[in-house]
Amino acid sequence: MNSSLLLSSAFTGVQRGPTLLGIDVVWAGTALAAVGVFAVLFAIYNALTVRNPMTKRVKALNERREQLKAGITASTAKRRAKLVRKNQHADKMRSVLGKLQVLQEEQIKDVQQKLAQAGIRSKDLAVAVIFGRMVLPVVFGGVAAFLIYWVDMWPTLTPIKRSGFTMAMLILGYKAPDLFVENKRSKRTDAIRKGLPDALDLLVICAEAGLTVDSAFSRVSKELGRAYPELGEEFALTSIELGFLTERRQAFENLAYRVNLESVKGVVTTMIQTEKYGTPLASALRVLSAEFRNERMMRAEEKAARLPAIMTVPLILFILPVLFIVILGPAACSLKDALVDTM
Question: Which of 28, 291, 317, 329 is 20 to 30 A from residue 53's alpha carbon, by CA?
Fold first, then answer.
């Protein structure tokens, strides 16, 4: 009996660690350390694992080729059933959004273009993104309200902080689909921007060698597939559409639709004018390539010029205090010893 009382008193007498905004600092530090270890292991796994970046993209391009051959219909009963199942889910979400009168065609077209620029080919996911904007705030806000008001996980939070945290989760739930799509879109756009001058140089070489436009795009996509897989995928898809679409102009316009870059739109305009008026392709692409290389160099110089201003804050917060401690620490210790001796 006495041992059980002592054990219970020992557990109840344990003091909590220091808190910050109602959160245990020791618990938060442990969680962050676990996340850091997981991130290090994941980075080591990615560094040791060799993957071919064109595997999934080649599969998607082959599916697009089959769709164009079959008139954008399923070629087998199995694929047809798969597409029907996907469309059923999209139709359910579309019907729910239609009943609530929150679905607009302009909104769907805008989301579809952003998804295409992010490298996501499925048009049904546009309805899923709009549906997520409506559902995720309810889910995130409900979980936050349950943890804050019902479970009372953080009892030291003031009412203003509780309301602010709940509102932040609601806003995060609404913006989460757009943030995900925008992040993939910006990364893909940057990757395509880096490889565009090299792709234009290869197009110039192919044009001077006498290759046709669709053969040149196909050849460039194969050559740039490993270095710039996103750009290689877009060029390969353009080559496929040039061979199957009735209007070649539509294939170039689809390229400008899928890539969020003004430079790609300039290339598309040049290609359309070349197809229409018969102007020399190599000379026009050579001018564009030189212009894009100068633009890339200017962006690099701009980043280099911004570097001193960006480094000012880390320098003040992290480097200078350590430098002062290293330089003034021994002098302060010697001064303290001297004062102790004199006293």
Answer: 291
